[in-house]
Amino acid sequence: MKTPLTIAPILVFIVLIAYGTTAYCETYVIHGGTVHTLGPLGAIEGGTIVVEDGVVVSVGNDLEIPQHAKVFDASNRVVTPGLMNSFTHLGIEEVSTVAGTVDHAATHSKDSSALAMHWSINPNSALIRFARSDGLTRAVVAPSAGPNIFSGTGAIIDLSTGNDFLTKRFAAVFATLGEAGSRQSGGSRSAAWLQLTESIEAARAFSDSRSKFEKQSRFSPLLSRADLEALERVVRRDVPMVVAVDRQSDIERVIDYKRSSKLNIVIKGGREAWRVADKLAAAEIPVLVNPMLNLPDNFEALGSTLENARILHAKGVVVAFSGSSSLYEWPYNAGGIGKIAGLAVAYGLPWEAALEAVTIAPARVWGIDDRYGSIEPGKEADLVIWDGDPLEAISGPVAVFIRGEPVSMRSRQSQLRDKYMNRVINQE
């Protein structure tokens, strides 16, 4: 039966009321805090941020507050952009000892670089809720090393757990060299480099002329068509290639390769990167650093130091922080990236630079700085109101906004805390 035209507007009105959160976005104002914009305005004391339709529309002092806005009082608080972790397994690992919940590596797959993590991400993971309660609003979801030096393609997510949580489906192709890469290539660093360079050249030929490439049957024995299509994004510079290396000589080899290949390369790990900081800065290669990694736990990390981030920053290298290590278990503590940034501050990295390394710096590395990473008009409103210094272990968020909407601070961990804390208090 057709709906009469006189009734249709009423039905539309009812639908808008029922699904009001999707029909319009509420206006929010954060007022009175110390706002670290990480943009041209710098830090603003007693600042005001106006958010409409998910984006920042204005930030500054003495701004007019819209009458219909919901105001969050940030007096005596600190406001920053939402934090970003540049290497996590959020959404692709729930319990490391339960194989069915682990999707970040395929040890028996024919494909390598084509393994796209965004296909496996579970936005309802309990660990995502836990991480965002620590102020994490964006994260790179990356693969682990598999049987090949190429481990797969990473994605960028926001932690809103909404249907459109994917910020970037194809963010980078990840490769492993050094000791791990040599093991995956027959036991020699030379074999690993040969495999990488031959794969890139095959992808370059594939990109130049697919029809000619296919006609001549020049597919690499190591690469499927899907792998070639993934690496094609690298040779076209659509995405960076993230190379995991630690030893100085391996890092220098990566620097030389970037100059000859003209690829967009990011180094992950870089335990001895401080030794070649000048060369990295000149080559414009960012480094994903974990400040927790300071012990020489293998031969390629004998030069590890807690001052790695400080030296790299001082020489002009773009530094972004990641929290992946056996010493700092992830994804369980992925949201604690701000705390390990604080460790770098303790060893000489300027405070502002440490905050940049978990906000605007990774946004630039991953090519999303047009929409995220600083508090500026037109950018998506990923914001955190803190009860103290965001890089201090004893501080925490009092409110978190992702794409302009406040998100729940509840997690399984906080529910368990409240449940059993109340029992203890009642017993006393």
Describe the SSE topology.
Layout: H1 8-18, H2 20-23, E1 28-36, E2 43-52, E3 55-60, E4 70-73, E5 78-81, E6 83-88, H3 126-132, E7 136-141, E8 150-158, E9 166-176, H4 178-183, H5 189-208, H6 210-215, H7 225-235, E10 241-245, H8 248-261, E11 265-269, H9 277-283, E12 287-289, H10 308-314, E13 319-321, H11 337-346, H12 351-356, H13 360-365, E14 383-386, E15 397-402, E16 405-406, H14 412-427
Parallel strand pairs: 1-4, 1-5, 6-7, 9-10, 10-11, 11-12, 12-13
Antiparallel strand pairs: 1-2, 2-3, 5-14, 7-8, 8-9, 14-15, 15-16
Helix pairs in contact: 5-7
Plain-language structure description:
The chain is of the alpha/beta class and 428 residues long. It has helices at residues 8-18, 20-23, 126-132, 178-183, 189-208, 210-215, 225-235, 248-261, 277-283, 308-314, 337-346, 351-356, 360-365, 412-427; strands at residues 28-36, 43-52, 55-60, 70-73, 78-81, 83-88, 136-141, 150-158, 166-176, 241-245, 265-269, 287-289, 319-321, 383-386, 397-402, 405-406. The strands form 2 sheets. Strands 1, 2, 3, 4, 5, 14, 15 and 16 form an 8-stranded mixed beta sheet that branches. An 8-stranded mixed beta sheet has the order 6-7-8-9-10-11-12-13. The longest helix has 20 residues, at 189-208. The chain starts with 7 loop residues before the first helix and ends with a helix. The model is unreliable at 1-24 and 325-329 (pLDDT under 50).
